[in-house]
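Protein modeling request. Please complete all fields; requests missing the sequence field cannot be processed.
Requester role: graduate student
Desired output: 3D structure, token encoding
Chains: 1
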Amino acid sequence: MSINSSQFTCTKSYEDFPCSHRQWRHAGHCRFVHGYSRSFTFWFSAKSLDINGFVVDFSCLKLLEKKLKHQFDHTFLVNKDDPILSYFQKLHDLEALDLRIMENVGMEYSSKLVWSWANEYLIEKDKGRTCCWKTESRENNSNGAYYEEYPNWYLV
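Delivered output (156 residues):
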């Protein structure tokens, strides 16, 4: 399949996942623990509409929403190479924070991460009929990042 302007697309957004993180390598204030209420938008594409005339039936995305909540709702995100990770792990063990260790806590990587989650779900559910081709991760109204890619299995 070649991607062209006649494909069907839709979006779904999830908002208000309060979490905190730090970018330990940053020379400025981002190295300190700080928080945002993250939001995510998914762009979906379909080779054909389903029996209901939908690209993606949003009511079937509960597992994706559950995964977003588990990762980002009232959690503390830390890079796996943070030099003080052991301290955050101790705070987690003391139930002072709900720790999530990530490759990178930035919005750019978060966009790629949630893109992969959506496509893991869609390939199993729709067997290649649909995909997520773009995601947006926002930490507030001013700052966000996108990840955009059509999965290889969708392009065949």
